[in-house]
Structures
1.
Amino acid sequence: MTVSMFERIGGAATVDRLVDAFYARMDTLPEAKTIRALHAPDLGPVKEVLKRYLGEWLGGPKLYSAERGHPRLRQRHLGFPIGNAERDAWLLCMRGALDETIGDAEARQEIYGLLAKLADWMRNQEDNPHDARAAPH
């Protein structure tokens, strides 16, 4: 029987701790000041959305898609300028949160690797090479 990453890391309780640790870093790290400014003062609602998304993304219950449909992450984030600096700040917060909450080093590294690819793809500024490949010539 295959165990999902969600189950492997400890399920919803671990995802909740991960998201809380992530946003705690965003609230306090000087390097995250620019991405924190892109969020509303009250992080409560966005925390709940990220908990549902990450839980589902890691193989847990489909709570995010049941509520919000297809993630369409880039489309949902087009109103926010995401360049290299924003990607790096987001990953800094996520790396620290993963280190704090995921005891399984192999799982932690696998999750970080996938999130790093996703964060890289989310860039929506002119320097994103993903857009250059997709643009019609």
2.
Amino acid sequence: MNPNLSAADLAQAPSWWLLALESRAPFELGASILASPLLHYAARGDGHPVMVLPGLAAGDLTTLPLRQFLQDRGFKPYGWELGPNYGPREGVLESCIARLRELRREHGCKVSLVGWSLGGVYARELAKMLSEDVRDVITLGSPFTGNPRASNAWRLFEFASGKKIGDAKLHEQIKRTPPVPTTSIYSRTDGIVAWQCSLEKNTARSESIEVVASHVGLGMNPAAFYAIADRLAQAEGEWKPFHRDGWRRWAFPDPDRPG
């Protein structure tokens, strides 16, 4: 075994039973609806724009519950308006850049990016290219590090995008943390992406937050909703890592525990 390989490099795709547990996603949406009175106490925003990018083979309809929640909390959420996400086909990244710059001009302030799964990979790359336009980045179950085949969706990605995974230079680029405040929200019970591949380094402006969720349910999970609002509500230039004090330790497992 190569001693230089990390746990993420050695990770394998989630097991069949975790994949089967992805069927709980509708219950996570139901839990968010039931938790609406409690989520009313989630952090409020300052009205700045938030661009939400969907996952592989998904479109803006899938991010509607999250965008409605952000709207209720005082943010200005927007879809990516590019139809289903079929991967980095020709023109997709350029269209994302144009959309981001449009929102920046319209609002006269930096834009936050929230990306679900593959959408989070886009969000990270946009923040690297346009750091002066991006306030912060939040990803949900996004596979940005480790073994690119530690997923139950890599074949779907190759089919949908027409591109092969495994380009070492590209994966090294994707691993790099964006130069803006960055949060990765992930779940150890993710049935699509190996959770080790969604772990961000803990630094003065980057972190990981663990929730108990399915991959398909991450964008409609009440704990994820709360964490997203908490991160986005921080004043620009005053970012601090997420804390797990008090009741939060019961809702948000310790991401640094062994496993």
3.
Amino acid sequence: MYKRVRLRDTVEVPPRHLADVSPELVRRLLQDKLEGRMDEGVGSVVSVTEVHDIGDGAVLPNRPGVYYEAEFDAVTFDPQMQEVVDGEVVEVVNFGAFVGIGPVDGLLHVSQISDEYLAYDEEGQQLASRDSNRTLGVGDSVRARIVTKSIDERNPRDSKIGLTAKQPGLGKHGWLEEDRQRREAQAGD
């Protein structure tokens, strides 16, 4: 889930920029420091949007810059348990598919994609069903539900988000459309 939050943090202004300590400079420095960082409390910082307040600067011994505490707005992505998300398959491996959901990837394990057996096609970089001829590959859009979440603040890329697509209304968008058309055709009979 994307959120707009008000945060406070300290930013170091290098000596060459001390003559121009402006909200725009502080915003750029905060972006460099925070964007892409994962925090258990707010999620992943996507963007610093606006600086509201810049405190008085503080000088620390043996440090060249001046440190300012700033209050600012940021857009964050904080995936919630049981949240339904849309994403795009970014990688397919023998045990499932990695789905890009915002700034992080979630794992859609092969056992959580379908009730059908899905075989890994390494050459085609996809998972395929022999029964229904359905495939799931890189670039496919999917709808899934978040079922596990383990956030690693030190190494955001090591965070783990588990997904499932085994309930009605979840799965590859193309499959959902096929199912909808089939239900409509059956209702018309």
4.
Amino acid sequence: MMNPPPNQPEPSYPRRMTWLDEWHDFWAFVRRPRLSRRCRQVTPRTAWVLDWMPGISFLRLLGWAAILWGINIFLFGPIVIGISKQAGATHAVDPANLPWLLALVWAPLVEEMLFRYGLRRPGIALWLVPLMVLALWLKPGVGQSLIFALVILAIYRVTSANPMPGVRARQWLRLYRRWFWLIFHVSVLTFASLHLFNFTFTSAQWWMLPALVLPQWFTGLVLGWMRVMRGIGAAILLHALFNFGPLMAAWLAMRWLQSAGLA
């Protein structure tokens, strides 16, 4: 995205957005993804900090998480269950050994940096995405932590320097903005497809696979809009909050089964 002149704020929404305003803005964004105005004014010198600060209340984030839980449970849930039975698919997560750290810390950080950070910073994405693919391949631990430390340091150095783009860079950024809608949807579909690795199959056919990741597809749309609108910090927090719901439900169900002597 082409930067404004130094110390001049980017265009932003003129007033505080209500829940209804955000809901309408989300659907308008999904129909035609664009690098819209942010929900608050930023300058090149403050963009680094504000991009990581959520800039949204916990109750508003909880509201979006509740929307995602409701749609995924009541709309997509029955579809996924039906297709899973036909495909002989079982989820790889063991209810007796829930991956709290992976779901609440590592997955939000790695997946948001891989699929959504570069949406507003395509130049950084050219080297960030390969590093995040490596981090995704590594198990959570020292190696992944080191990659994250290097990435954050590199992003800070690049964004704090704030070089004004040259002629070629501005032409490239205009092309990026023109095709942003396609890039956005490809990133969402790739994010959803990644979650097919959460299943093991016995008799799946190719047409069944997209239905199994409908929840991740819709969640990716919301997270992508949140990243563009509110910043990467808000997207990471919403991702972690969304993952917390199913994990807590599985944990409570396991405790109830154990207390009833059924597990």
